[in-house]
């Protein structure tokens, strides 16, 4: 029925029939004679038309989605107008071929739109995943930055505390060094005094020996007895834990004897040797 619009299935079946028919014509032309075949110029014109058609199809496929939709609407409107105009006319072969071309363009446009939509969805999915990764990376970076700031703060506090302790230790060390220097000076002074006192003691011992040699024998016997008695008393005092320094003429010895209530005569000290 030429007044009824065929379905898509019928259109594809018609296209297959035309392809088979074209193949049959091609096989038929192989067996045709030279004068029966078309000329070279006719073939070139057909090829040029085919190239233009293919180029036009490639340009149409490369359009953006909005342009494809607009062209689809325009073609649908044009097709509807053509169908409305063809209701009163018979559908010849050329008009049917144009209709097939329009349907083909519509199919290609719909396919291009579907492909572009699928690509857009894929790109949106990829962009969403990348945004999620970026957000996760930003959160990790913020967390690392916070941890690093905390580490720097703790390190600063530790450095301040270490500096404070170092200053305190340095001050204490300087104080101890000063004390050590003072004690060393005192030790040297005491050692000097000890050396001086030892020299004085040796001199006094020399004087004692000289005086002892010059003294009478009766006094020497009496002195030996006193020394023996003094030695016995010193042994007794040592057992009691008391140490007496017996230097002749030393005021501290006499005051110590008075404090412990021991008479000076009981401690036989030679008063003839001057200090």
Please indicate the count of domains.
2
Outline, from the CA principal axes?
rod-shaped
Summed up, the helix count is 6
Could you tell me the number of beta strands? Answer: 0
Keywords summarizing the entry:
mainly alpha; 6 helices; CFAP_domain-containing; 275 residues
What is the secondary structure topology, with strand pairs?
Blueprint: H1 8-31, H2 40-61, H3 65-85, H4 93-214, H5 217-240, H6 251-259
Keywords: Coiled coil
Pfam families: DUF4200
Region (Disordered): 33-63
Question: How is this structure best described in words?
Answer:
- This protein has 275 residues and is mainly alpha-helical.
- It folds into 2 domains: 8-128, no CATH class; 187-266, no CATH class.
- The protein contains 6 helices and no strands.
């Amino acid at each position: 029925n030429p007044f009824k619009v065929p379905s898509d299935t019928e259109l594809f079946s018609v296209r297959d029939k035309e392809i088979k028919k074209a193949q049959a014509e091609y096989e038929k032309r192989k067996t045709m004679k030279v004068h029966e075949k078309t000329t070279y110029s006719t073939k070139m014109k057909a090829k040029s038309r085919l190239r233009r058609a293919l180029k036009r199809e490639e340009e149409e496929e490369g359009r953006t989605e909005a342009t494809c939709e607009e062209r689809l609407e325009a073609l649908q409107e044009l097709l509807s107008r053509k169908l409305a105009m063809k209701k009163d006319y018979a559908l010849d072969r050329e008009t049917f071929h144009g209709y097939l071309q329009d349907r083909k363009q519509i199919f290609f446009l719909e396919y291009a739109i579907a492909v572009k939509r699928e690509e857009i969805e894929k790109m949106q999915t990829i962009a969403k995943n990348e945004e999620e990764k970026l957000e996760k990376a930003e959160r990790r970076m913020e967390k690392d930055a916070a941890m690093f700031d905390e580490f720097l703060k703790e390190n600063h506090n530790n450095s301040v505390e270490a500096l404070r302790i170092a200053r305190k230790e340095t001050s204490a060390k300087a104080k101890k060094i000063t004390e050590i220097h003072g004690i060393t000076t005192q030790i040297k002074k005491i050692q000097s005094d000890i050396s001086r006192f030892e020299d004085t003691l040796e001199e006094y011992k020399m004087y004692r020996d000289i005086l002892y040699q010059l003294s009478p024998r009766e006094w020497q016997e009496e002195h030996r007895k006193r020394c023996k008695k003094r030695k016995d008393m010193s042994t007794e005092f040592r057992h009691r834990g008391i140490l007496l320094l017996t230097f002749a003429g030393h005021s501290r010895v006499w005051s110590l004897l008075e404090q412990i209530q021991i008479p000076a005569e009981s401690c036989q000290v030679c008063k003839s040797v001057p200090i």
